[in-house]
Design goal:
This protein is of the alpha/beta class. It is built from 6 helices and 9 strands, in the order αβαβαββαβαββαββ. Helices cover about 25% and strands about 30% of the residues. The strands form 2 sheets. The protein has a 7-stranded mixed sheet, with helices on both faces. Strands 6-7 form a two-stranded antiparallel sheet. The termini are far apart. The relative contact order is 0.18.
């Protein structure tokens, strides 16, 4: 529900072993090619695993996450004049100006959102013409097998609420909001393509 408080006291997120987190960082860097500084919105910044890299590509960067605790940790690590940190619920109106960003990155966030069509609609609103929307998510094949986001919250393992989004749902949400697919790549543990892929990374572009 929009505005509902989400748990976020995952104090050891940086140090705990997490194959999905680490592989998504690789996928983002491989997927997003930036030749000139851009105005970027980073959704799912966590404690800053991708933020430092994105900052090197940014004219201005807004780094946002559900978790106020994670945002606070990222803010402690990263100090720059061209970055703004926000605690952010992407289930609600995003509150940015229209045509504010050239690029949106969304890392391991959409499995926690029931209505991804709303997210694509908000992304379309705040992106400039021809702007790019990257999303890196736990592959639905992994979800079919029972995988979901889990965190060590210090006093035990905590499971966030997750929703299965079939690949066709991403395409439908993109089509409904005037995006076109630019790239799609599946990512495997140790590049073992005999097993189910761990991640899916997609880039969509607003239609001109």
């Amino acid at each position: 529900m929009c505005g509902e408080k989400l748990p976020g006291a995952f104090f050891n997120y940086d140090t705990v072993n997490n194959k999905t987190r680490d592989l998504e960082a690789v996928a983002l860097r491989d997927s997003v090619s930036i030749s000139e500084p851009l105005d970027i919105l980073e959704i799912g910044c966590g404690t800053g695993k991708n933020t430092e890299w994105l900052l090197t590509k940014a004219n201005y960067l807004v780094a946002a996450d559900f978790s106020a605790e994670m945002v606070a940790k990222a803010k402690e690590k990263i100090i720059a004049n061209n970055i703004e940190f926000r605690q952010f619920d992407l289930r609600c109106d995003w509150g940015f100006s229209e045509n504010q960003f050239d690029l949106i990155t969304c890392s391991l966030a959409l499995e926690h959102i029931e209505n991804i069509d709303f997210v694509f609609g908000q992304a379309k609103k705040v992106l400039r013409t021809g702007g790019l929307f990257y999303t890196g998510e736990l592959h639905p094949f992994k979800q079919y097998q029972g995988s979901k986001a889990r965190f060590d919250a210090g006093d035990g393992v905590f499971e966030l609420e997750c929703y299965v989004h079939h690949i066709s749902e991403f395409f439908a949400a993109a089509k409904n909001n005037d995006f076109e697919l630019v790239d799609l790549k599946e990512w495997f543990d140790d590049n073992d393509k005999t097993a189910a892929p761990r991640l899916i990374a997609m880039i969509f572009r607003t239609k001109k």
